[in-house]
Amino acid sequence: MNAGPYLPKISDLQAGLFVALVGIPQCLAYAMLSGLPPMYGLVTAAIPGMIAALAGKSAGVTVGPTNTTGLIILTSLSPWAGQPDLLLTAMATLAFLAGLSRLFIVLMRAERIFDFVPEAVMVGFATGAAIIIALMQLDEFLGAPFSNVRNVVDEIRLLFQFDWAQFSFSSFLLATIALASVILGKRYVPKIPVPLMVLVISIILVAFNLTPMAEEWITLGDTTVINDGWPKLAQTFPGWSMIQALIIPGFAVAFIGSLELIVTLRNRQEPALLRRELGSQGLANLVGSLTGAFPASTSLTRSVLLDIGGARTLWAPFIAALVLIPIILFGSDAIRSIPQPVIAGLLIATALSMLKPAAIRQMLRVNSATRSLFLVTVFSTLILNFHEAILLGAALGIVMFLFQASQTSLYLYRVNERQILEPVKTPEQCDHLLIQVSGSLYFAAARQLPDRLDALICESTKTLTLDLGHAHHARVAAVQALLNFAEHCQHRGIRLDISSPSPELKQLTHSMGVRLPWSDQTLHMHLSREQTP
């Protein structure tokens, strides 16, 4: 922890306390979003948060539960939801695997894997997740929490069957106030923790029964067991079947959670710290899995609050985590008194913050491929498990990229009597053609090349110049494709000249013992003519 290094600065104390207090309702809400008792959210912010601060380098990164991974955790742990002991074992196993996945990425120097997630997938995932988070809170918003709700389909079905006689205006009012406190507070008084003030006031109203409305509010103490002291830890080791079931979700949690880290570091102009921060979060999750934490990641919102609070050194995120320890040990009375409508309002506010209208409009307008990728990710997020949806979107994006990269661009020119090139869009009757090949020449792109070239040749063509000056990444498949095409031209009585090959391509053909009709002289003539105005 940096210089002036051994003592925290006043600004670090202020930022740490600010983030800890403002983050309490978020941590509780995200634990419940993950299908876990709320106190585990505080543990996840405390232990992994301290470990990540000790092992990290950035003063502006705080680690704990997040909304982006909450629903992945929920769906991943749902098979053990009715078995509390196994649920804790699965929670610890998932955290351990998420930490291991991050460390594996660091050890393999594979950070570039995150570059393969298209922007359309990220925007689609965030949009689908926001819709689900908001929909799943509507029953608490109405003051009549549903039971046995496993997914968004169950929630929608029960909403259509809702008995409006159970509607609680006081719960609706409180949830609306909590929602408005986030939206209006962030807009007009961003440095004042308005949501925290609403939370504290609601706790006081419940604890001291200061209003008749408080009797109608369902509190966290009514729906879950909350006691002073450290929450119960996993008592058994996971079986192989549990580990197998959680390997992919563990990687998905690490993968998606790391994207918020990348955004945070880019915003702070600290991208060079990515490997160090990934490693620190991997270690934080490994330790957290042994101490009652579920998978932790960079919290984008609380990291922004560190900057607002004036964080200068790593003491700030460490203090933000440390402050939660006494609350876990001695704050159960206050936690039990939190009304669920407040949590519902905060989560819906979180969902709204995840929606990016400008980005959504861009995804829908750019081109058909981007639009399709965005819509597929949104709908798969709504109907599949979260980790399946994000991995499907990423895989589809990679497939689309490979498909686009598998075709080189071909530009057709007619060579007239004065040896000057004239661009043409379709094959014409002419004696001499030049085809310029642009793009990569490997695998599928190379294998398609002979047929695509053949389709551009006229019946009257006697001479064909193949310009490879803009082709690159030629592999064995490219040599085989050029050899096949040369034999095809010879069979048709067409003279083939191949100009501007790269030194690597010529060396490759030599190593393979292959002879192709290179023509340096033709290349020079055509390039000089092509550049003549």
From TrEMBL:
The keyword Membrane applies. Pfam families: STAS, Sulfate_transp. One of its GO terms (cellular component) is membrane. It is found in: Membrane. The chain crosses the membrane at residues 12-33, 39-56, 87-108, 120-138, 164-185, 192-210, 242-263, 313-330, 342-360, 372-403. Keywords: Membrane, Transmembrane, Transmembrane helix. The keyword Iron does not apply. InterPro entries: SLC26A/SulP_dom, SLC26A/SulP_fam, STAS_dom, STAS_dom_sf. SUPFAM superfamilies: SpoIIaa-like. This is Sulfate permease, putative.
